[in-house]
Design goal:
With 80 residues, the protein is mainly alpha-helical. It is 62% helix and 8% strand. The chain has a two-stranded antiparallel sheet with strand order 1-2.
Length: 80
């Protein structure tokens, strides 16, 4: 069975947050609050996936999480 997995990598350099703050320093707090909200949502999704994997057991549980979360992605890696 194949699953679509989306992987992002952090690379050194300026971030979108830095650019946004530099372009609108008057909205720095809003930019930071938005980014923290995004990070929190990502962490919650990861924790839910770990919980589901633990409860469903094994790789099949993780594949179910990946299918529900990432199947709509138009790009990614095929895992076997």
């Amino acid at each position: 069975m194949n699953s679509v997995v989306h992987i992002e990598a952090a690379v050194p350099g300026r971030s979108g947050v830095t650019a946004a703050i530099e372009s609108r320093p008057d909205r720095e707090q809003e930019v930071i609050a938005f980014r923290l909200k995004e990070l929190r949502a990502g962490m919650e999704t990861t924790l839910q996936g770990i919980k589901t994997l633990a409860e469903e057991g094994g790789r099949s549980g993780w594949e179910a999480v990946v299918r529900r979360r990432f199947a709509p992605a138009a790009h990614g890696l095929i895992c076997r």
